[in-house]
Write a structure and sequence with these properties.
Strand order of the largest sheet: 3-2-1-4-5-6-7
Distance between the termini: 19 Å
Oligomer: single chain
Number of strands: 13
CATH topology of the largest domain: Rossmann fold
CATH superfamily of the largest domain: Glycogen Phosphorylase B
Amino acid sequence: MNKIGIYDPYFHILGGGEKYVLAIASCLESQGNQITICLDKPEYLVKAALKFGFKTNLFKTTVWGKNRNERDSLLKNFDTVYYVTDGSLFFSSAKKNILIIQSPVHIPKKTLVNLLKLNNWRVVCYSHFIADIIKNRLNIKADTLFVPIEKPSPAQSYKKNLIISVGRFFPHLHNKKQKEMVYMFQKLVDEGLTDTHLLLVGSVDPGGEEYYNGVKSIIGKYPIKIITNATYEELNRLYGYAKIYWHCAGYGENLILFPERAEHFGVSTLEAMSHYVVPVVFAGGGQLEIIDNGATGFLWKAEAELGKYTRELLRNESMRDRIAQKAFRSAMNYNLENFCDQLNEILEK
């Protein structure tokens, strides 16, 4: 039995990165390893279990060291350490060290000290999109390990004319563009779209309250609803009712200069696909790796394309159903079993 420690400084946010490390923890625990989640506050794990549906009672918890001596004393007890970096690096006293880089903004700076530290770490990221940027900036090869999704419960017996988008509310980095989605949907309604609702689901990040309130303030009388802090079960139920999934991260941004503003992978897109929801997503970042345009969903660059694909899917149910079936089958490739197999392949290299 190996002793494995995991530290993610963003457990207070509970985004895709936290789902990712819990998936890693679940895989490794199922293989007989002892897992310790290092947290700034232990209660974060309880909230994570509720949001993501993982059985976190199988993991030990401990408080992350506040200084180098405390951290070194903790890490030397582990055979392997997984660290989700915020851009920082350290020399680890664990036997094996895995560095998880979530986005371009979290890639450590290319300094002599950091390059020396990187000799002590194996780098893992979500997508080829991120891996290519890491290669260009640090001249090192990162292993890619996708964010897995759970196999959903049986599909709803019927679908509603519902467009759903899932993402946290925050104004910075790869902002999910909820405000733009509201304006785009309002324009479609003004142009004649009827009997259709838009649902925005997502938690509000610390510091994102003003942005969230700004989105709420522009809804007016349009058929748009926001749900915050949905549980794992509630989110799956909402996916089950939806026909179309919107994702707009990266829209209107210069992704050459600021690649971090694109979607880094697209786990919520895959979650939607696994519930027979057809994705209509901005063509940038990790989304390009998981959508076969026209077959498992639609990629768009201009607002007019988003509107065109949305109208076609709502008008032509047989086409929507055909694409939804292909989307579901594609999403099932990103299951937890395949994730665990790929993780083991990385560890055995």
